[in-house]
Design goal:
The protein has 233 residues and is mostly helical. It has a single domain (1-231), classed as Glycerol uptake facilitator protein. It contains 10 helices and no strands. The chain has helices spanning 2-23, 28-50, 61-77, 85-94, 99-125, 148-168, 174-192, 202-208, 210-215, 217-232. The longest helix is centred in the middle third of the chain and has 27 residues, at 99-125. The radius of gyration is 17 Å and the shape is globular. The termini are far apart.
């Protein structure tokens, strides 16, 4: 049921992207913002659902396989979108994107992340899958299982490694590049998932753990917003 749900999200977003491309050709700025919103929504919604499947047997092989598979799927279906505020900072830093345009795109990403969380909560209330039972009562699921300083360093390091890889594979054939990036993300999740969640995406972190930001905003913003942003720069 969870796999069908995520497949439905991917299909719906794909339809939305196609409609946007057809009707907003003459408005490139609006099209770019809508595309970023839809893409970030897909990543956040699917990752919210994947986070409930961490205990699926055999552990951790099933969760890592799903992580790899859906990362490849995102890479193939969301071409042209960063789905990550840190990815938007890179062209802003290099002068390729204006501060206004970049700020709007980052705002769209966080808005989509919040909408994805609300949407998944609505579906979890329907209890379409066994994993949905009790998902709404978790509150802050506390992904940080280490000290604040170690968590900060881990997210910073992972963001640096991820950005360096992106820069190195820019000229690789897209069909190969998505597998390289998916393999890297899966390896990072395996290495640090039990310590910080290995998120290195501020919008995704907000979508996965909003209650944690409400409870301890400074700590979680330092680890999941500032650290990956510094690593990207």
């Amino acid at each position: 049921a969870s796999l069908l749900l995520m497949a439905g999200v991917v299909a719906a977003v794909g339809l939305g992207r196609r409609l946007a491309r057809r009707h907003l050709r003459t408005r490139p700025h609006l099209f770019s913002l809508l595309l970023e919103m839809l893409s970030t929504f897909q990543v956040c919604a699917c990752t919210n659902e994947l986070s409930l499947l961490g205990d699926v047997e055999p552990k951790p092989h099933a969760a890592l396989t799903l992580t790899y598979g859906f990362t490849v799927l995102h890479g193939l279906t969301l071409t042209g979108s960063t789905c990550n505020p840190c990815g938007t900072l890179q062209p802003m830093w290099g002068g390729g994107t204006s501060v206004e345009a970049g700020g709007l795109k980052i705002g769209a990403q966080f808005l989509a992340a919040g909408l994805a969380r609300v949407f998944m909560h609505f579906l979890w209330r329907l209890e379409m899958a066994e994993s949905h039972s009790g998902a709404l009562t978790q509150g802050c699921s506390n992904p940080m299982q280490t000290t604040e300083m170690q968590a900060f360093c881990i997210e910073l390091l992972f963001s640096v490694v991820f950005q360096l890889t992106i820069l190195q594979v820019e000229n690789v054939k897209p069909s190969y590049r998505v597998h390289v990036i998916a393999l890297l993300i899966t390896m990072l999740v395996f290495a640090g998932g039990n310590l910080t969640g290995a998120i290195f995406n501020p919008a995704l972190a907000f979508s996965l753990h909003p209650n944690c930001f409400y409870d301890n905003f400074f700590t979680y913003s330092l680890v999941y917003w500032i650290a990956p942003s510094l690593g990207k720069l």
